[in-house]
């Protein structure tokens, strides 16, 4: 089925029919259509009331443990440790992986700034590599190429032969919820003895080769910010298959306070990174509805896929071997001008659309960091648009 009229309109920069179709798919014909708003259709108010009535709204309480157990079960990891937000969880994960001051950490240039900020919190330097065009996540070919050229193994650790710095972690990110080629990345990093920390902030509900994203690496990190697939208001989670490491995480996230009925004994410098009980109460209600959310998001993605089939606009589909949560649906334009034209038109008409992040290497704090050509990442940053990806709630459901 050719879509010549559609393509002619795209050529003329006329996007009304696309925007109308987006509204129809998201079941919101008029008014402001957000990119990704949370929906509360379950036990949210019940658990929040219960939490308030218990007075345990802060750093201790049953909801935190219950939420951790639910997430651990859902992602099939041994242990999950809840944190105040995804950024704090990433910081802790890197510290637990052994990232030190003046080390180097390899990551992707196409990511949210928090990925790189967490590396900087450790005093380490980020190295930014390209992404692959299928998954939009860290490209294993680029990773191998950079390590082959730059890494040298000494005493079981990898060092950058030019800078002399230890390469102490690799942080791939599952972009917009699409699983990256995590198994290949881990195989490469194992050859170089580099631990992998998965930034799975966007990919709760996304599976690669049948396993949940964030469960492949040494540690995985989730986020429950307001715009993510499920929300705690703010929150994050560390995923572990090593229970001792999980214990360390819990200790470090609670000011490194040792267990004592009344005394304040802190045995190292810790952090106030533990998730409050009231946030966990919200999160627990949200995770109970994850199957509904994912089903609705998949339905939206399929409708978008059909809408853009045989047009000049390319819809980003879930990669091979993957089941994506379709957190944020993405489309790619032929060039930046067309893309920018669409963004202006969409946002003017109240259909919230956003470009991909500016590459982290373009931000002043990270401009001088090492990187490769970033060929794919640059093109994606110029041509991608995230389109509304809200869970559609049946009137009956709410
Ligand atoms: C949302 C996000 C984070 C940070 O999570 P917060 O909970 O907002 O701190 C980290 N990395 C990526 C890729 C994200 O999208």
**Strand order in space, largest sheet:** 1-11-10-7
- Beta-strand content bin: 5-15%
Poorly predicted tracts of residues:
none
* Largest pleated sheet: 4 strands, mixed
Structural class by helix and strand composition: alpha+beta
| SSE pattern, N- to C-terminal | HHHHEHEHEHEEEHEEEEEHHHEEEHEHE
What is the strand tally?
16
The kinds of small molecule bound in this structure are: pyridoxal-5'-phosphate
- Please state the overall shape, judged from the principal axes of the Cα atoms: globular
How many DSSP H or I helices?
Answer: 13
The whole-number mean of residue pLDDT values reads 96
Taking the alpha carbons of the first and last residues, their distance comes to 37 Å
State the share of residues found in helices, binned by percent.
Answer: 25-40%
In angstroms, what is the radius of gyration? 22 Å
Describe the structure.
- With 398 residues, this protein is of the alpha+beta class.
- Helix content is 37%, strand content 15%.
- It contains 13 helices and 16 strands.
- The chain has helices at residues 4-11, 16-25, 44-54, 62-75, 86-96, 113-121, 140-150, 182-191, 243-253, 277-287, 290-308, 336-348, 375-383; strands spanning 79-83, 104-108, 125-129, 151-154, 157-160, 167-171, 197-199, 207-208, 211-212, 219-223, 236-240, 314-315, 322-323, 329-332, 354-355, 384-387.
- The protein has a four-stranded mixed beta sheet, sandwiched between helices.
- A hairpin with a 2-residue loop joins strand 8 and strand 9 (211-212).
- Helix 2 (16-25) runs antiparallel to helix 11 (290-308), helix 3 packs antiparallel against helix 10 (277-287) and helix 5 packs across helix 6.
- The chain is globular, with a radius of gyration of 22 Å.
- The model has no long low-confidence stretch (mean pLDDT 96).
- Bound molecules: pyridoxal-5'-phosphate.
- Pyridoxal-5'-phosphate (PLP) is lined by residues 85-87, 111-112, 114-115, 173, 199, 201-202, 223, 225, 236.
